[in-house]
Design brief:
This protein has 378 residues and is of the alpha/beta class. The chain contains 14 helices and 5 strands. It has a 5-stranded mixed β-sheet, sandwiched between helices. Helix 6 packs antiparallel against helix 9.
Length: 378
C-alpha cells in the first residue's frame, strides 16, 4: 500500500514540472520569499518564464495582486538575463469560482487548471503545448508516481549539471599561453633585436592584393611598442584564459584566428592602401564577441557580468578607438563581428543545436565572402 497520499494539486504540479523540465528543457529559478510557487525559465522559448502557482486565489482583487507580484519578479528576471521582453505563462491551480480571468495583460498569459482531465485533455494547455498529453508517467500508486517523476527530473537535471560542470570547471590553459609566447617572441625578434622587419608582416591592403596573403594573419602577432604589447597581452590573458576554459581549445582557436582574419580584412577595406596596421587587438575584440555570444546563452548566470563588465568594456574601447589617433578601430569592429559569428558557427555545447551552428556557418561564410570581394574585386 502506498504511504503517500497526493492531492489533486500535487499531482498536477508534478506532472507540469515533469513535462516542462524533461520535454521543454525549462529549468527551475530560485525565487526567495514565495510559497507554493514554482518558477521555470527557458528564455529561448515562446514563454521565457513559466510560473506554477498553487496558492488559493479567491477573488479578483487577489488575482490583480498576484499578477502584479508576477510582473515584479519577471522584471527582475529580465534585468538579470538582459532580456528586452519576456513573455510569461502563469498557471494557476487553485482559483475560486467567482474569479474572472480576462487575459488582457501585456506579456503575461494566465491559464487555470483545476483537475487532471484538464491537464490531459484541456484545449487551453494542449493548444500551447500539444505534446503534453503524450507525457505519460507510468505508476502503480502515489509513491511510485512521486519516485518516477523525481527520478526523471533528477536525470535531466544531472545531465544539465554535467554540461555546466564541464563548461566551467578549471582546465589546463595551453592555447592562450602559446599565443602570448608567440607574440612576445615576435616582439623581441622584431622590435628589440631588429631581426625581423615589421613592415614585411603588417596589414596593408595593397600588399595583400599583390599576393602577400600572410599579412592577414601575421599582422596580429606584431606590435608597435612595449605598451602596445603589454596592454594586448594582458587583455589576451584575461579574456583568453576564460574563453579557452568555456569553449574548449579547438573552438577557441578557430574563433581567435577567424577574428584575426576579419579584423585584417575590414581594416584593409575601410582604411585603404595608405594605412598599415599591426597588433592582436582585433583578435582580442573577437574574443569579446565570443564572450558576448557565450554570455547570451548563459545569461541567467552571467547577465550581471555582461551588463556591468563585458558590454561597458566593448563600448569604452570602441569610444577610445574613435577619439584617439593611431588606433585601428575598423580592425576592432571587424574582430568583434568575426568573433561573434565564428562563435555562432562553432557553437556552445549543450546550448546551441545543429541548426544554430549551420546558421552561424552561413553568416560567417557570407561575411568572409563580402570582405574578400571588397578586398580583391572591388
Amino acid at each position: 500500500m502506498s504511504s503517500l497520499n497526493m492531492t489533486n494539486i500535487d499531482e498536477i504540479t508534478m506532472r507540469l514540472v515533469h513535462y516542462f523540465v524533461t520535454k521543454e528543457n525549462y529549468q527551475p529559478i530560485l525565487v526567495n520569499g514565495l510559497e507554493n510557487e514554482i518558477w521555470l525559465e527557458n528564455i529561448d522559448k515562446k514563454y521565457g518564464v513559466i510560473r506554477i502557482n498553487s496558492n488559493y486565489i479567491h477573488n479578483n482583487e487577489q488575482l490583480s495582486f498576484d499578477i502584479y507580484k508576477a510582473k515584479t519578479i519577471v522584471k527582475q528576471i529580465k534585468k538579470k538575463t538582459l532580456s528586452l521582453s519576456c513573455d510569461t505563462l502563469s498557471i494557476l491551480l487553485n482559483v475560486g469560482e467567482n474569479v474572472s480571468i480576462k487575459n488582457d495583460e501585456k506579456h503575461i498569459d494566465i491559464l487555470t487548471i483545476s483537475n487532471i482531465d484538464e491537464l490531459e485533455n484541456g484545449e487551453s494547455i494542449s493548444s500551447l503545448f500539444p505534446e503534453i498529453k503524450n507525457d505519460v508517467i507510468e505508476a502503480n500508486d502515489d509513491m511510485d508516481f512521486f519516485i518516477n517523476v523525481t527520478n526523471d527530473i533528477n536525470t535531466k537535471t544531472e545531465e544539465k549539471n554535467r554540461i555546466y560542470e564541464k563548461t566551467f570547471r578549471k582546465k589546463r590553459i595551453v592555447i592562450t599561453y602559446a599565443l602570448i609566447a608567440i607574440n612576445i617572441i615576435v616582439f623581441i625578434l622584431s622590435y628589440v633585436l631588429g631581426i625581423i622587419d615589421t613592415s614585411d608582416f603588417s596589414m596593408n591592403i595593397a600588399d595583400v592584393r599583390n599576393g602577400e596573403f600572410w599579412r592577414l594573419i601575421t599582422s596580429a602577432f606584431f606590435h608597435g611598442g612595449i605598451i602596445h604589447l603589454v596592454c594586448n597581452m594582458y587583455s589576451l590573458y584575461v579574456l583568453g584564459t576564460q574563453l579557452e576554459t568555456f569553449m574548449g581549445k579547438w573552438k577557441y582557436t578557430v574563433v581567435y584566428f577567424l577574428s584575426a582574419l576579419t579584423s585584417s580584412l575590414l581594416s584593409g577595406v575601410l582604411n585603404g592602401p595608405g594605412v598599415a596596421s599591426v597588433g592582436a587587438s582585433g583578435a582580442i575584440f573577437g574574443l569579446l564577441g565570443a564572450m558576448l555570444y557565450f554570455g547570451y546563452h548563459y545569461r541567467l548566470y552571467l547577465g550581471s557580468v555582461m551588463a556591468e563588465r563585458i558590454i561597458p568594456i566593448i563600448l569604452l574601447n570602441l569610444f577610445i578607438g574613435f577619439t584617439m589617433p593611431y588606433i585601428d578601430n575598423f580592425a576592432h569592429i571587424g574582430g568583434l563581428v568575426g568573433g561573434l559569428f565564428a562563435s555562432m558557427m562553432v557553437g556552445i555545447e549543450g546550448k546551441t543545436n545543429k541548426s544554430d551552428t549551420i546558421n552561424g556557418a552561413i553568416v560567417t561564410v557570407i561575411l568572409f565572402a563580402f570582405l574578400i570581394y571588397m578586398t580583391f574585386f572591388r
